[in-house]
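Tutorial handout. Part one gives the primary structure; part two gives the three-dimensional structure as C-alpha coordinates.
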Amino acid sequence: MVDLTDLLTDLADESAQLDALVAPLPAADWSRSTPAPGWSIGHQIAHLAWTDHVALLAATDAAAFFATVSAAPDPARLVDHGAEQFLAPPAELLARWRAGRTALADALAAVPVGEKLPWYGTRMSATSMVTARIMETWAHGEDVADTLGVARTATDRLRHVAHLGVRTLGHGFAAHGRPAPTAPVRVELTGPDGDTWSWGPADAADRLTGPARDFCLLVTQRRHRADLALLATGPVADEWLDVAQAFAGPPGAGRGPRAAGSEVLA
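Part two.
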Protein backbone atom coordinates (compact mmCIF):
# COMPACT_ATOMS: atom_id res chain seq x y z
CA MET A 1 0.00 0.00 0.00
CA VAL A 2 1.32 3.46 -0.90
CA ASP A 3 2.14 5.65 2.09
CA LEU A 4 0.29 8.98 2.08
CA THR A 5 3.30 10.84 3.49
CA ASP A 6 5.52 9.53 0.70
CA LEU A 7 2.90 10.49 -1.87
CA LEU A 8 2.68 14.01 -0.51
CA THR A 9 6.47 14.29 -0.72
CA ASP A 10 6.35 13.24 -4.36
CA LEU A 11 3.60 15.78 -5.06
CA ALA A 12 5.68 18.52 -3.44
CA ASP A 13 8.70 17.49 -5.53
CA GLU A 14 6.68 17.38 -8.76
CA SER A 15 5.24 20.82 -8.01
CA ALA A 16 8.69 22.18 -7.16
CA GLN A 17 10.06 20.96 -10.50
CA LEU A 18 7.38 22.86 -12.39
CA ASP A 19 7.68 25.86 -10.07
CA ALA A 20 11.41 26.07 -10.86
CA LEU A 21 10.54 26.07 -14.56
CA VAL A 22 8.04 28.94 -14.47
CA ALA A 23 9.24 31.13 -11.60
CA PRO A 24 12.17 32.69 -13.53
CA LEU A 25 10.12 33.42 -16.65
CA PRO A 26 9.64 37.05 -17.68
CA ALA A 27 6.02 38.18 -17.45
CA ALA A 28 5.61 38.11 -21.23
CA ASP A 29 6.36 34.37 -21.36
CA TRP A 30 3.39 33.60 -19.13
CA SER A 31 1.20 34.64 -22.07
CA ARG A 32 2.81 32.21 -24.51
CA SER A 33 0.39 29.70 -26.05
CA THR A 34 0.80 26.08 -25.00
CA PRO A 35 -0.23 22.91 -26.87
CA ALA A 36 -3.61 23.08 -25.07
CA PRO A 37 -5.80 25.17 -27.41
CA GLY A 38 -6.58 28.58 -25.93
CA TRP A 39 -4.37 28.07 -22.90
CA SER A 40 -1.23 30.07 -22.11
CA ILE A 41 1.43 29.12 -19.58
CA GLY A 42 -0.52 31.30 -17.16
CA HIS A 43 -3.67 29.27 -17.82
CA GLN A 44 -1.78 26.05 -17.07
CA ILE A 45 -0.66 27.28 -13.66
CA ALA A 46 -4.04 28.89 -12.96
CA HIS A 47 -5.71 25.55 -13.70
CA LEU A 48 -3.48 23.81 -11.16
CA ALA A 49 -4.21 26.53 -8.59
CA TRP A 50 -7.95 26.26 -9.20
CA THR A 51 -7.94 22.47 -8.99
CA ASP A 52 -5.97 22.61 -5.75
CA HIS A 53 -8.62 25.03 -4.45
CA VAL A 54 -11.60 22.81 -5.26
CA ALA A 55 -9.71 19.74 -3.98
CA LEU A 56 -9.15 21.63 -0.72
CA LEU A 57 -12.89 22.24 -0.50
CA ALA A 58 -13.53 18.55 -1.16
CA ALA A 59 -11.21 17.67 1.72
CA THR A 60 -12.51 20.26 4.21
CA ASP A 61 -16.01 21.42 3.22
CA ALA A 62 -18.00 19.04 1.01
CA ALA A 63 -21.00 21.38 0.90
CA ALA A 64 -18.83 24.21 -0.44
CA PHE A 65 -17.34 21.85 -3.03
CA PHE A 66 -20.78 20.81 -4.29
CA ALA A 67 -21.82 24.47 -4.34
CA THR A 68 -19.03 25.27 -6.81
CA VAL A 69 -20.35 22.52 -9.07
CA SER A 70 -24.00 23.59 -8.92
CA ALA A 71 -23.09 27.26 -9.37
CA ALA A 72 -21.05 26.64 -12.54
CA PRO A 73 -22.61 28.73 -15.34
CA ASP A 74 -21.69 26.10 -17.94
CA PRO A 75 -20.71 22.64 -16.65
CA ALA A 76 -19.08 21.84 -19.99
CA ARG A 77 -16.65 24.73 -19.42
CA LEU A 78 -16.03 24.11 -15.74
CA VAL A 79 -12.30 23.49 -16.19
CA ASP A 80 -11.78 26.40 -18.59
CA HIS A 81 -13.80 28.71 -16.37
CA GLY A 82 -11.76 27.68 -13.34
CA ALA A 83 -8.49 28.49 -15.10
CA GLU A 84 -9.85 31.85 -16.25
CA GLN A 85 -11.14 32.62 -12.75
CA PHE A 86 -7.73 32.02 -11.17
CA LEU A 87 -5.69 33.71 -13.88
CA ALA A 88 -3.70 36.66 -12.49
CA PRO A 89 -0.43 38.54 -13.04
CA PRO A 90 2.51 36.08 -12.76
CA ALA A 91 3.74 37.04 -9.29
CA GLU A 92 0.23 36.93 -7.83
CA LEU A 93 -0.62 33.68 -9.59
CA LEU A 94 2.61 32.02 -8.50
CA ALA A 95 2.00 33.00 -4.88
CA ARG A 96 -1.61 31.75 -5.09
CA TRP A 97 -0.52 28.40 -6.51
CA ARG A 98 2.18 27.94 -3.85
CA ALA A 99 -0.16 28.80 -0.97
CA GLY A 100 -2.96 26.65 -2.35
CA ARG A 101 -0.92 23.53 -2.88
CA THR A 102 0.57 23.84 0.62
CA ALA A 103 -2.89 24.19 2.17
CA LEU A 104 -4.15 21.21 0.17
CA ALA A 105 -1.24 19.02 1.26
CA ASP A 106 -1.92 19.87 4.91
CA ALA A 107 -5.63 19.12 4.51
CA LEU A 108 -5.08 15.79 2.75
CA ALA A 109 -2.58 14.71 5.39
CA ALA A 110 -5.33 15.16 7.99
CA VAL A 111 -8.03 13.13 6.17
CA PRO A 112 -8.95 10.07 8.26
CA VAL A 113 -7.93 6.72 6.79
CA GLY A 114 -10.79 5.22 4.80
CA GLU A 115 -12.68 8.48 4.29
CA LYS A 116 -13.78 9.19 0.72
CA LEU A 117 -13.76 12.73 -0.62
CA PRO A 118 -16.30 14.02 -3.14
CA TRP A 119 -15.03 14.63 -6.65
CA TYR A 120 -16.42 15.04 -10.16
CA GLY A 121 -18.52 11.96 -10.82
CA THR A 122 -16.81 9.87 -8.16
CA ARG A 123 -15.41 9.79 -4.62
CA MET A 124 -11.72 9.49 -3.83
CA SER A 125 -9.50 8.56 -0.91
CA ALA A 126 -6.81 11.01 0.14
CA THR A 127 -4.15 8.81 -1.48
CA SER A 128 -6.08 8.74 -4.75
CA MET A 129 -6.51 12.52 -4.62
CA VAL A 130 -2.77 13.04 -4.14
CA THR A 131 -2.02 10.62 -6.96
CA ALA A 132 -4.37 12.58 -9.22
CA ARG A 133 -2.66 15.84 -8.25
CA ILE A 134 0.73 14.35 -9.16
CA MET A 135 -0.69 13.26 -12.52
CA GLU A 136 -2.14 16.68 -13.28
CA THR A 137 0.94 18.58 -12.15
CA TRP A 138 3.16 16.40 -14.33
CA ALA A 139 0.84 16.59 -17.35
CA HIS A 140 0.43 20.36 -17.27
CA GLY A 141 4.15 20.62 -16.66
CA GLU A 142 4.64 18.77 -19.94
CA ASP A 143 2.59 21.43 -21.74
CA VAL A 144 4.74 24.16 -20.21
CA ALA A 145 7.95 22.32 -21.05
CA ASP A 146 6.76 21.77 -24.63
CA THR A 147 6.09 25.48 -24.96
CA LEU A 148 9.52 26.42 -23.68
CA GLY A 149 11.37 23.68 -25.57
CA VAL A 150 12.73 22.29 -22.31
CA ALA A 151 13.81 18.68 -21.80
CA ARG A 152 12.60 17.56 -18.36
CA THR A 153 14.29 14.66 -16.60
CA ALA A 154 11.90 11.74 -16.07
CA THR A 155 11.70 10.50 -12.48
CA ASP A 156 10.24 7.55 -10.61
CA ARG A 157 7.26 9.80 -9.80
CA LEU A 158 5.96 8.67 -13.19
CA ARG A 159 5.04 5.39 -11.52
CA HIS A 160 2.11 7.20 -9.85
CA VAL A 161 0.91 8.54 -13.19
CA ALA A 162 1.28 5.14 -14.81
CA HIS A 163 -0.57 3.43 -11.94
CA LEU A 164 -3.46 5.85 -12.33
CA GLY A 165 -3.41 5.27 -16.08
CA VAL A 166 -3.77 1.53 -15.57
CA ARG A 167 -6.50 1.89 -12.95
CA THR A 168 -8.59 4.11 -15.24
CA LEU A 169 -8.66 1.69 -18.18
CA GLY A 170 -12.41 1.14 -17.81
CA HIS A 171 -13.06 4.87 -17.35
CA GLY A 172 -11.37 5.67 -20.65
CA PHE A 173 -13.68 3.28 -22.51
CA ALA A 174 -16.78 4.51 -20.65
CA ALA A 175 -15.91 8.18 -21.22
CA HIS A 176 -15.87 7.49 -24.94
CA GLY A 177 -19.22 5.68 -24.84
CA ARG A 178 -17.74 2.22 -25.21
CA PRO A 179 -18.36 -0.80 -22.98
CA ALA A 180 -15.63 -1.43 -20.43
CA PRO A 181 -13.59 -4.48 -21.46
CA THR A 182 -13.74 -7.64 -19.38
CA ALA A 183 -10.49 -9.12 -20.69
CA PRO A 184 -7.46 -8.25 -18.54
CA VAL A 185 -4.48 -6.39 -19.97
CA ARG A 186 -0.89 -7.03 -18.96
CA VAL A 187 1.06 -3.76 -18.81
CA GLU A 188 4.86 -3.79 -18.74
CA LEU A 189 6.62 -0.43 -18.77
CA THR A 190 10.29 0.50 -18.65
CA GLY A 191 10.92 3.08 -15.94
CA PRO A 192 13.42 5.95 -16.14
CA ASP A 193 16.12 3.82 -14.47
CA GLY A 194 15.55 0.83 -16.75
CA ASP A 195 13.53 -1.25 -14.30
CA THR A 196 10.23 -2.85 -15.30
CA TRP A 197 6.91 -1.75 -13.84
CA SER A 198 4.10 -4.24 -14.37
CA TRP A 199 0.37 -4.59 -13.79
CA GLY A 200 -2.15 -7.29 -14.68
CA PRO A 201 -1.90 -11.08 -15.11
CA ALA A 202 1.38 -12.25 -16.59
CA ASP A 203 -0.48 -14.64 -18.90
CA ALA A 204 -3.04 -12.12 -20.23
CA ALA A 205 -3.54 -12.33 -24.00
CA ASP A 206 -3.83 -8.56 -24.28
CA ARG A 207 -0.55 -6.76 -23.56
CA LEU A 208 0.81 -3.22 -23.60
CA THR A 209 4.55 -2.58 -23.41
CA GLY A 210 6.87 0.39 -23.84
CA PRO A 211 8.55 3.28 -22.04
CA ALA A 212 6.78 4.46 -18.88
CA ARG A 213 7.01 8.09 -19.98
CA ASP A 214 5.30 7.29 -23.28
CA PHE A 215 2.46 5.54 -21.47
CA CYS A 216 2.07 8.53 -19.16
CA LEU A 217 1.95 10.87 -22.16
CA LEU A 218 -0.77 8.66 -23.66
CA VAL A 219 -3.05 8.43 -20.60
CA THR A 220 -2.80 12.18 -19.94
CA GLN A 221 -3.53 12.77 -23.65
CA ARG A 222 -0.32 14.76 -24.19
CA ARG A 223 0.71 12.72 -27.25
CA HIS A 224 -1.05 10.79 -29.99
CA ARG A 225 -0.44 7.05 -30.03
CA ALA A 226 1.33 7.40 -33.38
CA ASP A 227 4.09 9.42 -31.71
CA LEU A 228 4.77 6.93 -28.91
CA ALA A 229 6.84 3.75 -28.67
CA LEU A 230 4.02 1.69 -27.20
CA LEU A 231 3.30 -1.81 -28.48
CA ALA A 232 -0.25 -3.14 -28.09
CA THR A 233 -1.01 -6.84 -28.53
CA GLY A 234 -4.66 -7.88 -28.68
CA PRO A 235 -7.86 -5.97 -29.50
CA VAL A 236 -8.48 -4.55 -26.02
CA ALA A 237 -4.94 -3.22 -25.62
CA ASP A 238 -5.04 -1.74 -29.11
CA GLU A 239 -8.38 0.01 -28.57
CA TRP A 240 -7.15 1.29 -25.21
CA LEU A 241 -4.50 3.33 -27.02
CA ASP A 242 -7.35 5.29 -28.64
CA VAL A 243 -9.40 6.01 -25.50
CA ALA A 244 -6.93 6.08 -22.59
CA GLN A 245 -7.77 8.86 -20.14
CA ALA A 246 -6.39 9.09 -16.61
CA PHE A 247 -8.38 12.20 -15.66
CA ALA A 248 -12.01 12.54 -14.59
CA GLY A 249 -14.74 14.02 -16.74
CA PRO A 250 -15.85 13.76 -20.36
CA PRO A 251 -13.50 12.48 -23.07
CA GLY A 252 -10.67 14.84 -23.83
CA ALA A 253 -10.00 15.96 -27.38
CA GLY A 254 -6.49 14.52 -27.21
CA ARG A 255 -3.63 15.59 -29.46
CA GLY A 256 -3.20 14.88 -33.13
CA PRO A 257 -0.10 13.17 -34.55
CA ARG A 258 2.92 15.43 -34.80
CA ALA A 259 4.00 16.43 -38.27
CA ALA A 260 7.21 14.83 -39.49
CA GLY A 261 10.22 16.78 -38.26
CA SER A 262 8.20 18.78 -35.72
CA GLU A 263 9.33 16.99 -32.56
CA VAL A 264 9.44 19.20 -29.48
CA LEU A 265 11.66 18.47 -26.52
CA ALA A 266 9.67 17.82 -23.37
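Part three, for discussion. Residues 58 and 133 are 13 Å apart (CA to CA). The radius of gyration is 18 Å.
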